[in-house]
Amino acid sequence: MIDLVIFGATGDLTRRKLLPALYQLEAAQKLPEGLRIIGVGRKLVEPGLFREQARESLEKFEGKIDPGVWDRLSGRIGYEASDYSVESLRAMSHRLAPSVLFYLALPPDVFPTVAANLGQAGLSKENGGFRRLVIEKPFGHDLASALELQNQLLQHWSESQILRIDHYLGKETVQNVLVFRFANAWLEPLWNNLHIAQVQITVAEEIGVEGRGEFYDKVGAVRDIVQNHMMQLLTLSALEPPPKIEADLLHNEKVKVLRSIRPLSRENLVQGQYVGYLEEAGLEFSSTETFAALKLYLDNWRWKGVPFYLRTGKKLARKHTEVALQFKGPPQRLFEDTDCNPEPGWLVLEVQPQEGMHIDVEVKTPGLQLSSRRTSLRASYRSKGLGELSAYATLILDALNGDRSLFLRFDEVEWAWRVLEPVLRPVDPPELYAPGSIGPNNQFSLLEDGHRWRKLG
Ligand SMILES: NC(=O)C1=CN([C@@H]2O[C@H](COP(=O)(O)OP(=O)(O)OC[C@H]3O[C@@H](n4cnc5c(N)ncnc54)[C@H](OP(=O)(O)O)[C@@H]3O)[C@@H](O)[C@H]2O)C=CC1
Ligand SMILES: O=C1O[C@H](COP(=O)(O)O)[C@@H](O)[C@H](O)[C@H]1O
């Protein structure tokens, strides 16, 4: 018997991501037999009402619900109220299965207390089963708090019990970055500073902060997206091939990339805030950034001199996540029209919502003249409906099965904070940008001569 205990079960993450993931796993018959899902929150809620609310969340965030799948899923779901004190957790411990996965879907400032109280209540001790702890992001608020959180966790939990989640690693198209790079040998000679002029990594969101203003305002785009999801996209795009696809060997390579990032200074970062953020977040004043763009360099053999541009923001023109590498141009352009001056082509890995890849190539312009035009070789990652489990579904299943390869090792988190530490305390207020736009104008100041931001989607 296994219990999945979700702390913070009335919250946004549970409703928006965890319940849909569990529904998908139930539909795919991937949940372990006998698994119970116990939602925990501070308020007293009748389990029946909690299930009703869970179903409403599924209808909102998952879409059409199959009654048979829901019946099976709801049969697993229970609810308990707890104030997360040692006494209350100890009382709960008697009702738990030998193997328990605790999921902290809670505001990050309560992670240390809840993790410690679980330990003091004896719930981190394994006795004939497993005890694992999933820690959501952000892991810490800066380098010092991340180190402190790690120390606090290690007082009651061993490293092998701690699963630091970054849901981007559960996305198929993020995992595909690695497969695409290392399963196609012809790419390798091109994937370096001899042939690549610049790399752009974009995580653009159409949504604003929605109901998460209180949380978001303490965090901002750098901590919410750059420190974790974008650093993962960066390391996967830039790392050296590990000797084998094994978790620790991959973590080693990712840390090497982070350690090779040239120390950042304020000039490497620009920030923006969308017009309407204050009203949406219910604030009178805030200098929190909802947009961040960075330029960084990796001082290593492969990437020396190639700028990596990272950009993320909320309330942008559209949702679009991609990793794009621009090739250097040919040494001499022989075939172009005298009037046209095409920029060198891109290789683009589309992460979401389109899932695919394309490579720009120049081909002959039809007609008598010998000139070139741009076209794209496109491939889609999968047909709709094929193997579609959400990132959270993949990661919850891995966590239940004890597969740690898609979870973060602490030094990855630590080095991501070390890299960003110099730019965490902004001096200038963020520049305002219009919702639905491409973000603030200051982002253009980062670009080197001849470079321009790619279109969003
Ligand atoms: N929402 C999202 O899309 C994503 C969230 N995350 C991470 O997941 C975690 C949870 O996020 P989210 O669900 O949005 O957060 P919420 O702000 O919605 O909080 C979750 C729940 O925590 C409980 N809670 C709030 N304050 C406290 C407190 N002081 N002590 C104990 N419990 C408290 C509340 O439940 P109750 O009042 O019932 O006890 C609340 O419903 C965060 O770490 C976030 O960074 C990561 C990726 C995406
Ligand atoms: O971790 C987070 O991610 C979501 C974006 O996730 P995606 O899978 O939709 O790309 C973001 O909205 C949220 O602010 C952040 O905390």
From TrEMBL:
Belongs to the glucose-6-phosphate dehydrogenase family. Pathway: Carbohydrate degradation; pentose phosphate pathway; D-ribulose 5-phosphate from D-glucose 6-phosphate (oxidative stage): step 1/3. Residues 178-454 form the Glucose-6-phosphate dehydrogenase C-terminal domain. Transmembrane segments: none annotated. Keywords: Carbohydrate metabolism, Glucose metabolism, NADP, Oxidoreductase. PANTHER family: GLUCOSE-6-PHOSPHATE 1-DEHYDROGENASE (PTHR23429:SF0), GLUCOSE-6-PHOSPHATE 1-DEHYDROGENASE G6PD (PTHR23429). It holds the Pfam family G6PD_N. InterPro entries: G6P_DH, G6P_DH_AS, G6P_DH_C, G6P_DH_NAD-bd, NAD(P)-bd_dom_sf. NADP(+) binds at G8, A9, T10, G11, D12, L13, T14, R15, R42, K137. Its EC number is 1.1.1.49. Catalyzes the oxidation of glucose 6-phosphate to 6-phosphogluconolactone. This is Glucose-6-phosphate 1-dehydrogenase. The active site is at H229. One of its GO terms (molecular function) is glucose-6-phosphate dehydrogenase activity. One of its GO terms (biological process) is pentose-phosphate shunt, oxidative branch. Residues 5-176 form the Glucose-6-phosphate dehydrogenase NAD-binding domain. GO terms for cellular component: cytosol. Substrate binds at H167, K171, E205, D224, K314, K319. It comes from the Bacteria. It comes from Allomeiothermus silvanus (strain ATCC 700542 / DSM 9946 / NBRC 106475 / NCIMB 13440 / VI-R2) (Thermus silvanus). The gene is zwf. It catalyses: D-glucose 6-phosphate + NADP(+) = 6-phospho-D-glucono-1,5-lactone + NADPH + H(+).
